Amino acid sequence: MNIVEIKDESIELNKLLKFEGLVESGGQAKALINEGYVMVNDDICKVVRKKLFDGDVVEFNGHIMKIKTN
To answer: Residue 38 in contact with residue 57, Cβ under 8 Å?
Structure first.
């Protein structure tokens, strides 16, 4: 599991995928989220701009990331 430290209180799901370099563009992130390829806290998430907070776990394409705020 990869710990992703963010400086703000939250980060949007699409931005997390871009920030971590798992997608090439925001459009690609949006499409993959809409198609159900991303899980948040063990549930499929189709909300492109879902806000992620400290402790949330995101799974995508074999990558598992846990959000940690500073």
So the answer is: no
User: Would you say the C-alpha torsion 12, 17, 18, 20 has a positive or negative sign?
Assistant: positive
Distance CA 10, CA 62 (A): 23
Domains in the chain and their CATH numbers? 2-69 (3.10.290.10)
pLDDT bracket for residue 70 (50, 70, 90): confident
Residues 6+ apart with CB under 8 A from 56: 40, 41, 66, 67
- Distance from C-alpha of 36 to C-alpha of 44, rounded to nearest angstrom: 6
Question: Which amino acid, one-letter code, is at 44?
Answer: I
pLDDT tens sequence across 15-50: 999 999 999 999 999 999 999 999 999 999 999 999
